[in-house]
Design goal:
homopentamer, mainly alpha, elongated
Chain lengths: 293, 293, 293, 293, 293
Amino acid sequence: MIIRDKPGLLQLLFSVRGSVLPKILPRVAFVTAFAAGLVWVDLNVLRLPHTNAAPFAVFGIALSLFLGFRNNAAHDRWWEGRKLWGKLIADMRSLARDAEIFVPDRADRHRLLTLALGFIHAHRLNLRQLPSRAAPANWLSEGDLKTPHPPCTKLNQMTEVVAAAAPDGFARRALAERIGSIALAQAGCERIATTPLPYVYSLLIFRTTYLYCGLIPFGLMDTAGWLTPVFVAIMAYIFIGLAEVTEELAHPFGETVNGLPLDAMCRTIEISLAPHLDMPTPAPLKADRFYLS
Amino acid sequence: MIIRDKPGLLQLLFSVRGSVLPKILPRVAFVTAFAAGLVWVDLNVLRLPHTNAAPFAVFGIALSLFLGFRNNAAHDRWWEGRKLWGKLIADMRSLARDAEIFVPDRADRHRLLTLALGFIHAHRLNLRQLPSRAAPANWLSEGDLKTPHPPCTKLNQMTEVVAAAAPDGFARRALAERIGSIALAQAGCERIATTPLPYVYSLLIFRTTYLYCGLIPFGLMDTAGWLTPVFVAIMAYIFIGLAEVTEELAHPFGETVNGLPLDAMCRTIEISLAPHLDMPTPAPLKADRFYLS
Amino acid sequence: MIIRDKPGLLQLLFSVRGSVLPKILPRVAFVTAFAAGLVWVDLNVLRLPHTNAAPFAVFGIALSLFLGFRNNAAHDRWWEGRKLWGKLIADMRSLARDAEIFVPDRADRHRLLTLALGFIHAHRLNLRQLPSRAAPANWLSEGDLKTPHPPCTKLNQMTEVVAAAAPDGFARRALAERIGSIALAQAGCERIATTPLPYVYSLLIFRTTYLYCGLIPFGLMDTAGWLTPVFVAIMAYIFIGLAEVTEELAHPFGETVNGLPLDAMCRTIEISLAPHLDMPTPAPLKADRFYLS
Amino acid sequence: MIIRDKPGLLQLLFSVRGSVLPKILPRVAFVTAFAAGLVWVDLNVLRLPHTNAAPFAVFGIALSLFLGFRNNAAHDRWWEGRKLWGKLIADMRSLARDAEIFVPDRADRHRLLTLALGFIHAHRLNLRQLPSRAAPANWLSEGDLKTPHPPCTKLNQMTEVVAAAAPDGFARRALAERIGSIALAQAGCERIATTPLPYVYSLLIFRTTYLYCGLIPFGLMDTAGWLTPVFVAIMAYIFIGLAEVTEELAHPFGETVNGLPLDAMCRTIEISLAPHLDMPTPAPLKADRFYLS
Amino acid sequence: MIIRDKPGLLQLLFSVRGSVLPKILPRVAFVTAFAAGLVWVDLNVLRLPHTNAAPFAVFGIALSLFLGFRNNAAHDRWWEGRKLWGKLIADMRSLARDAEIFVPDRADRHRLLTLALGFIHAHRLNLRQLPSRAAPANWLSEGDLKTPHPPCTKLNQMTEVVAAAAPDGFARRALAERIGSIALAQAGCERIATTPLPYVYSLLIFRTTYLYCGLIPFGLMDTAGWLTPVFVAIMAYIFIGLAEVTEELAHPFGETVNGLPLDAMCRTIEISLAPHLDMPTPAPLKADRFYLS
């Protein structure tokens, strides 16, 4: 995630870090060159059929409708991913507090919270599909990572601790509910990670965008002349740029510049649980060149 | 569901798998041919009444409004269906953990979870209206499938196990709440499956789409000439294509290419419950030619 | 509610059942005749002031904004009504299961569920403002229906059974929470039934629609000539049709073709509760000429 | 709140009760007169600069965006206010039922419910900022109304009754949760009442509306001539009317014609609680000339 | 937050307090001057390429789409922030009432609520990133503020009081759930404060806005002449103004004029808790020149 103050005018216009421009430049250039070629042919070789801009109005409305929908859907996925992780942070803190209240034995509490930290890292690895070697050795063992579903394995181990350490029905209920709440947020994250936006939208949107950018020169040449490629470039920047942004936001757990900072949030949880584990508090992660991983 | 990486340019333009194009091609062709016929008549036989594109602007806005609404409503149904199944996955895992904590007897636990797996398959069969022979014999018996509502039958059987096996009030409360939570997600799925989008919208939208595609040549012929059928083809592709996509998404439990992968999610639940049932973990389902059933 | 497969092309264009066309035909005809009259006067009697279509663009945007808002609000009311009834179905099933777990005496359980079925029918009668004679005699007595608020009366009677039959605090808590959850869904339905969309919107929308349809001929006559009444007819169909549809959807508990099938849902609940009451399972309601009441 | 059947054509066009027209007439007249003046000057005195309607297209889109946003936000506040009161109605009924189940002593129950009715009236007075003399003497004493926050005072008194009268932990938990749920709905209502829509939107919207209505004659005069003031009047009616409607809906607890019927809802609660208090059931409030207070 | 009655006509047009105009004036002036310069060059020096307004239609739609999305997202953040604080207010009041019911010892109760007030102030300081010297000394000690995360520290201290003072499992469950609910709202606020809207949107929106304002003179000059800078000024006011407003609303916990009144809400909580702490009730905060901090 890019963490940056409100940009000034110069930054806005020339900032590259965090912008999609570098990624889409070839496609924008291609579309612009195509438009310029059409204008050149029209002026020098052979008069092409012209049309006014009216048919493009509805075309543009449809395109806006598609992109508006996709943008909302992608941002909702991103924001829901963040909400679920926010819930996980709160649940982890509350698990530690519930343990203070309901689990009398200090060693049991430490075991439970250690497993919880293992869970959150296993969950992060699972969402980002990272290899086992990316796992922090102090929280996750080799054996954990070889099970079919490591985050569930850790939650099952936490369940065993609760079954053994809870002194009465109240404690069992409180801790079982907390683990259930964590499992619900976990399943929510997995839902977002495994269920992309329907593929058919990608086809519809990209096809419509390219058709639009390829045909609009016929509607603009008459009045805009050599300004035509400029307009086409801007529209390609807007439409292809937005399509690209939504592609990143729709996968909020990826390691892209617009992905959620899972590493930093795992660290936040470690900081919150440190006093309950009688451990030194680690330092929060800092953004590196505006990027927080 | 189609599982596919972000498509490249060529795939985007020529991909057929997962596209609605094959399904709507006859209708698009018909509308395009009609437009071409009008242009031919206009140029060679008899001058038809022409109009400029202005009246179509509002027409197009209304059409966008309808399609935008329908698209949002359909996608919401699809995504809510997925959310409910995500909740079922989480509830199934939590049921297994609750059983570990609250049910002392191992055989009772196994009975409960076996019934739960029967429930989830009966629920899947019910949502997809599959015949009994599609039922997995190890989880569902002939007798189960002959009851008036097999998923409810399985939940009732689970209730009997809980009533008999729960050692105290805490256990009864915890397991009854979990079954209630499963029943709520089940009823949500049945709501989506049995309550289509109001039929009147289908009529309004399809009628408006065909009227629009049939009339717009009168507005374009003047300026676009023989480009008219091209524009009509594109608009028909966009509007009929979107109408078709929303039709599929509005029935998220169907076995269409855009339906939800219920088989794969049932398998995910089997994988999650395997360690609690001391069973070998089955392999996750894989997409077959990008399609996950 | 209309239950119908995806309509074919012919059905789409000529279907009357479920369409709003018959209802709005007089108004559409009136507006169209007015437009035809204007064109006739303009061509034969006296040249009327003409204007181009530009001022209607913003007009149309405003109209779309109103209709889009109203459409969303109406559909949300309809879908929320369905959600609340889905929740009632789930709660009724869970009440039966909770009773199996928490109420030891079979006769008490039967009493509780009989009252629950009385509640759901009283709730249906109340929402649809049906007379007492529409009440099913096996679930609702004359006396019940004479109380100031029959659904609340039945819930109060259920409360008395719980207070008398629950053996311990766990049972009291579980059943009281279930009744509270039912009461919440009930109050939600009553909210929708008693609080219409703000009246002022009806005025704004209908006035704007008629002004628009009455003025647009002045903007179209120049270019569209005798096609003007055709366009006006289509726009009147779209705008008045949508206003009419939203009127029906905004009252989801009415007995209109787009109302929710409360009778069928009450039957679904009876089917679900039959095994718990040791009664024969009734048959589900079927749609009659595509209409499910 | 206006309670009225679907209006007929005549009512729609000439209804004044519930319409915003009387309130905005001076402003609409002023804007219209200004436009008429411009046309007169243009035709008779001095040719003003003309422009076509194109620049107003985007202007109009921006205005629609503002008004659409504000309309949605205002209606959401209104509907959320109604939802919270619906929840209060359900919670009050459930409180009465919980008391039947968990509080063994009839006098304690009566005390609790009497305080609850005091709370709901104190809450209503607080939301509407009514003076003490508007308080119903049978539910609220002078002393109650002199405390810093009367609704909280009543909830605190209810808490004291619960602390004294609950026979066991189950009862304490059930009643404390119910009071907490009531307090949550109360805080939600206070949130809506004390936090208006950001003031800056009012400025942006009103300024844009007046600028638009003041400038659009320059774009219409050319083609619309003396129809210009008619169009301006209609647009002013739509835009100022909508701004005014949203102003009322954004304050849902006010005593305006579009405000929520808090008096009637308090009466609904009194009706629901009467049988639990062994009191005669009061009559429901009726709309007075279509207005329900 | 600006607290002000519905503004009159004069206030609307000339109000500065609460308006974004002063902040964006330089940028609006710059864009306007650029447009005026272009018109001057076009008329006096060298005829620039002209285009009609059609290409700007789609451009404007895209811009509206961006701004509409951003406006909704920013307002949602602001309103969600307010909802979370409303929930905190309700939870604080309910915590005090739960303590009355479940904690028998008065000193324990006072300790718990004193810590709770410390939490809410620490939470406010944390959200606003205020220095320690801004902390109210009666609720927060030096030591508290030196811990890695002061709000969590206070919640941990509250947990310790609960673990020590709760007499039975019911009390432990009730108070642990309340603290968990507070922690959830706290994490929600921290989510909003630490996760800005994706940076890439800022780039896309600002770049598109400036490109639009810089290019639109070429489309307007032909018909609008010297009215061009007027239109450009208005559009710049609308688009840059909205971008600025959303920037403020997207950071709801800042101390801007549109930020949420955290100070006033902390005071509301102090007022609500005063009777439970047997303390004199403080006066509510008042707006200072319409501004409530």
